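The protein record quoted for completeness.
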Amino acid sequence: MGAKVTIKDVAELAGVSKSTVSRYLNHGYISVEKQKKVREAIEKTGFKSNFFAKRLKTQESKLIGVVLPRMDSVTVGKLLSGINRIFDPAGYQGILLVSHLSQEKEIENIENLQQQGVDGILVDSVGLTPRHIEMAKNTPVPIIYTGQWDPSVPSIKIDDWAAGRMVGAYLRQMGHVHAVFAGVTETDKAVGIDRKQGFIEAFCEGRPEAKVDFVQTGFDFLSAYNKGAEILQMAPTVVVGATDNISLGVLRYLHERGIKVPEQISVVGFGGYDVGAVVYPALTTVAFDYELLGMKAAQYLLDLLAGRDVEENLTLPLFFVERESVRNLTKEYENKAPSSYRGLA
């Protein structure tokens, strides 16, 4: 059949669709079983020697797929800034797709990018599933995940457990015994499990009287604001938002009801957003260098593409930023219980 063999011929012989053959030629994801069928069909028909197929196999697109959980996020903006600082000088352009905080959409976006023939894919993931792991292992297109971590695939993230411990140890030192952790679903392992668990461990360590209640919220300001009444019913001395955005939603709720922070209740966050420094009171937080995360992730992917050894030191710095939103309950003149705010919600 020689050079006249078409993708349709290969697809019919392999018993698969033309799009499956196209994905195979573009290094996209298809199952191991279908890979074998397509490979055998190509060998039988001689399609592998076809000039067009060779070009597809060897040509660099200089395109990198980037999958983001959302666009309306301070952290995503900084992450993209870091990514571009590495990709731009290397001559790569990004194709951006948004998952809208959905694991299913995230996987769909990865598959779409594979079909478009990108050289590599960087995913700021909302949560790694077995499907995510399978895709990273079984495709010739390198995939690196940020925001989540798994030892079996290329991934890089902030040490959320250590960040949680920072906040827990600080509030323990400040004399707080009852906290509410306002966090997200455990589908997001990094923020929903690691960060929360680190906080609980450090806050309660050696203190049987210490108590942490949990209120589930979303990542957005409004969903945290709407949980304000539920949080106040638990009567904590401090609210810990899993992100600064969550904490800012709580701060707004308290402000509208005349509840003073930190005199009546303290608030802490995670992230180090710039807005946390200008609200009143300024928000105590753990600052993360999201731009550096983007730079390291992008360099990691370029190293994989070039077949270079990957940098082993992927540690990212954490900075504790003490501001005005936490009351020190150990001070003698503040040793009284916080003023009641019950009934104000």
Observations:
- The chain is about 40% helix and 15% strand.
- The longest helix spans residues 290-306.
- The longest strand covers residues 63-68.
- Residues 49-58, 337-345 have pLDDT under 50 and may be disordered.
